[in-house]
């Protein structure tokens, strides 16, 4: 300790005598001879006096503002060199030093650097300028310093001429890691890149996004400011304000770590390469220079806290720049570190999951409003800049959602209440078909059953109704390719067969009760029951077969609805579907025409009238179906077609068979052969009386016709004669029909119904 006090006293005396800077020797702060000279640059004084106090001449001015902390660093360098000289580390080699006070001024540091570059064994003022300095031997072999990055960059550019190693102990500017511009610079402190990265990490960890920056107006401050702004923007941190202070402010409360000197020095030609590969320890940690000449050390995170009016600085954590983590040693410090999150430094309240940030007109992205995510969008983190879109094909999301939900797959399920109701109606229809079949079978030989075309025709029609009711089950349940192809084909063919059989019945009724010879002859030629039924049904089979071959119905996954996926049968070809239904409608219309013409039948045999009503029900149902089917969307589309099938099937079934069942069960007295013959006789007599007209009536008609044209010309006479002949022919036809009927009835022959 006594030695250190004496050394400080002597050093202060040397500095005091060198203040006027009368000669170059007085410019040196401290020097010691040796075989190898190591230069040193330290800002022992804070600044130089302003040039206003002295004439403007190219000379080094007086330095003021003594910095004790930097002075201690200078003593640390001297002490380290003396320890090496007093050891056996460099046997026979003595290290010397030449230390200059830069006065925190680039000009002074450059003057000292020129002294370092002077030629070996020559005057200090001698420096040779060459194109190649490979063989040049400078007096100083390496330089330690200087402190500030701005000064270090200027010095390093001059030392690069001879690739003289320079080891910085405080210069942290990121640009000094560029080995293209500063190939001979090494440092024992991390780059500002890591310092700024640690600061950004700390701010993000504390949950802040609204901060201010205070920096110095020099290369170190400006470079650090630019780098920090980039890091802050990358972490969505906004700069509320930026304050730039004059450079080189003194703060005695800040102490810089005293760096360890080099452990060994070898031949000066290999000095720079060896320095880059040096590894040394402080007892616990191992240190080395990386490829950028930066030392693998970290930072201390300190907390400035005011306690009882005094400012205290407490170490909170260490920043490991290699792993980008904060190392906290004790629990109390960890709690203090966590308390940083309680400090609110935000421009806007954070947006919760399910919301997104909506930037206001402010220039800062950290000032925003929170807006709920719209439907089918979500956000699962706080302060998300935008909401994420769900996969609309498989997922959906409500407003302000934090996640996407899978769409529910829907179709007309067996458990659906509407499906159950429709199935009950279909089952009830099948029961009606079976009951009608039983009733007709037990009353096989009654006139009502025989007049309906016989049991085989009735069975065919009832089978068609059964298949129509059964086809509705293929519209319910999860759609499959088989059910999609079967349901329309089964309905189309069975319904066509049903309408074809009813068409033949209508044609037969019209043939039996029509007494016009010409029309009767035409109907007899047309009436080929089996052939017509086969042809009519065969055409529908061909339509359905072509449909299945070229554009068969398939299962389609409909994802157009926002929250559900609809499994449905895509008909394949709307043209084929429409052709199938249109063909049935044509047959039904022909059947309706035939039945309508035979509507005035015997009172107890009014089947044509009921067929007419059945066809009307069919037309009303399917005409209503078209707009409803076209506008209905979703899982209940099949239900629309089921309802139409049931209505048309029930209408034809009820109109065709229920009146006959009513006669068989409730009107048994008219379901006899004698009653049936009596009804035929009554209807035939009425028809003959309306057709057969007396000669007096014809003469009267002829007379009326003649009187209407008493004074006609030649053309009028010809027209009168033609009308007379038509009337006579009409009367003769009526007489023949009456005679035919009168001959037929007494023989008790039943019309070929």
Q: Tell me the distance between the termini.
A: 143 Å
Shape: rod-shaped
Which strand-content bin applies to the residues? 15-25%
Number of helices: 21
Oligomer: single chain
Give the C-alpha Rg.
57 Å
Q: Largest sheet, if any?
A: 6 strands, mixed
The tally of beta strands, per DSSP, is 24
Q: For the largest beta sheet, what order do the strands appear in spatially?
A: 1-5-2-6-7-8
**Approximately how much helix is present in the residues?**
40-55%
> Residue ranges: pLDDT <50 for 5 or more in a row?
1-25, 250-265, 691-753
Q: Given the helix and strand composition, which structural class is it?
A: alpha/beta
Supply the key terms.
753 residues, alpha/beta, six-stranded mixed sheet, three-stranded antiparallel sheet, 21 helices, rod-shaped, disordered C terminus
Report on this model:
The protein has 753 residues and is an alpha/beta fold. It has 21 helices and 24 strands. The protein is rod-shaped and about 155 Å long.
At a glance:
The protein has 753 residues and is an alpha/beta fold.
Write the layout of secondary structure elements.
Blueprint: H1 2-18, H2 24-27, E1 28-32, E2 36-42, E3 45-48, E4 63-66, H3 68-85, E5 95-101, H4 106-116, E6 140-144, H5 149-159, E7 166-168, E8 185-187, H6 192-205, E9 210-216, H7 219-234, E10 238-245, H8 271-276, E11 279-281, E12 286-288, E13 299-307, E14 310-320, E15 325-327, H9 331-338, E16 355-359, E17 368-372, E18 377-378, E19 388-389, E20 395-396, E21 405-406, E22 408-410, H10 417-442, H11 447-451, H12 455-471, H13 481-512, H14 517-526, H15 529-550, E23 554-558, E24 564-570, H16 574-597, H17 607-631, H18 637-666, H19 673-691, H20 695-707, H21 714-744
């Amino acid at each position: 300790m006594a030695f250190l006090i004496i050394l400080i006293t002597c050093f202060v005396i040397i500095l005091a005598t060198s203040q006027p800077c009368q000669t170059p020797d007085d410019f040196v702060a401290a020097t010691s001879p040796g075989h190898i000279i190591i230069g040193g640059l330290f800002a022992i004084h804070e600044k130089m006096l302003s040039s206003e106090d002295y004439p403007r001449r190219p000379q080094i001015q007086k330095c003021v503002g003594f910095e004790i902390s930097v002075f201690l660093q200078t003593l640390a360098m001297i002490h380290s060199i003396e320890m090496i000289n007093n050891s056996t580390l460099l046997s026979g080699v003595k290290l010397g030093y030449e230390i200059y006070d830069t006065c925190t001024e680039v000009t002074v540091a450059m003057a000292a650097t020129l002294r370092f570059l002077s030629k070996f064994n020559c005057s200090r003022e001698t420096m040779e300028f060459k194109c190649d300095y490979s063989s040049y031997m400078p007096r100083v072999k390496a330089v330690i310093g200087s402190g500030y990055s701005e000064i270090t960059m200027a010095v390093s550019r001059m030392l690069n001429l001879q690739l003289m190693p320079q080891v910085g102990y405080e210069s942290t500017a990121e640009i000094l890691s560029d080995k293209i511009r500063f190939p001979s610079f090494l440092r024992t402190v991390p780059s500002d890149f890591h310092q700024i990265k640690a600061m950004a990490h700390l701010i993000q960890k504390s949950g802040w996004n609204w901060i201010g920056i205070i920096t110095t107006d020099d290369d170190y401050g400006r470079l650090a400011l630019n780098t920090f702004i980039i890091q802050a923007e990358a972490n969505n941190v906004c700069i509320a304000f930026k304050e730039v202070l004059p450079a080189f402010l003194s703060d005695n409360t800040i102490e810089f770590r005293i760096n360890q000197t080099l452990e060994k020095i070898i031949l000066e030609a290999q000095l720079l390469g060896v320095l880059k590969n040096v590894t040394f320890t402080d007892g616990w940690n191992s240190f080395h220079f990386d490829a950028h000449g930066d030392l693998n050390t970290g930072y201390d995170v300190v907390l400035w806290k005011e306690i009882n009016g005094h400012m205290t600085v407490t170490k909170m954590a260490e920043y490991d720049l290699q792993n980008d983590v904060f190392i906290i040693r004790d629990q109390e410090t960890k709690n203090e570190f966590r308390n940083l999150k309680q400090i609110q430094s935000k421009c806007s309240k954070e947006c919760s999951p399910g919301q997104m940030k909506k930037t206001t007109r402010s220039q800062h992205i950290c000032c925003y409003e929170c807006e709920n995510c719209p439907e089918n969008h979500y956000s699962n983190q706080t302060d998300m800049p935008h909401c994420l879109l769900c996969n609309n094909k498989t997922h959906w999301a409500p407003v302000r959602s934090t996640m996407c939900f899978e769409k529910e797959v829907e179709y007309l399920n067996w458990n659906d209440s509407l499906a159950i109701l429709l199935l009950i109606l279909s089952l009830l229809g099948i029961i009606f078909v079976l009951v009608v079949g039983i009733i007709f079978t037990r009353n096989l030989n009654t006139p009502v059953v025989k007049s309906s075309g016989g049991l085989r025709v009735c069975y065919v029609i009832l089978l068609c109704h059964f298949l129509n009711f059964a086809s509705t089950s293929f519209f319910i349940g999860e759609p499959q390719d088989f059910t999609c192809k079967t349901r329309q084909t089964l309905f189309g063919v069975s319904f066509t067969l049903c309408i074809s059989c009813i068409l033949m019945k209508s044609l037969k009724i019209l043939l039996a009760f029509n007494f016009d010879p010409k029309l009767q002859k035409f109907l007899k030629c047309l009436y080929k029951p089996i052939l017509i039924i086969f042809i009519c049904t065969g055409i529908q089979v061909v339509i359905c077969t072509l449909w299945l071959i070229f554009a068969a119905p398939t299962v389609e996954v409909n994802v157009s609805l926002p929250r559900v996926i609809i499994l449905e049968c895509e008909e394949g070809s709307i043209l084929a579907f429409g052709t199938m239904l249109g063909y049935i409608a044509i047959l039904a219309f022909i059947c309706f025409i035939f039945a309508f013409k035979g509507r005035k039948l015997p009172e107890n045999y009014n089947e044509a009238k009921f067929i007419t009503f059945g066809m009307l029900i069919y037309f009303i149902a399917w005409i209503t179906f078209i707009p409803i089917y076209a506008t209905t969307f979703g899982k209940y589309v099949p239900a629309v077609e089921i309802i139409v099938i049931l209505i048309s099937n029930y209408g034809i079934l009820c109109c065709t068979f229920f009146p006959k069942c009513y006669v068989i069960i409730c009107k048994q007295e008219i379901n006899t052969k004698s009653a049936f013959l009596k009804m035929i006789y009554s209807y035939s007599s009425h028809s003959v009386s309306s057709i057969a007209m007396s000669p007096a009536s014809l003469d009267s008609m002829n007379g009326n016709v003649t009187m209407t044209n008493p004074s006609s010309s030649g053309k009028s006479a010809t027209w009168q004669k033609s009308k007379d002949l038509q009337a006579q022919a009409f009367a003769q036809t009526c007489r023949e029909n009456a005679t035919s009927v009168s001959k037929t009835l007494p023989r008790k022959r039943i019309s070929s119904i």
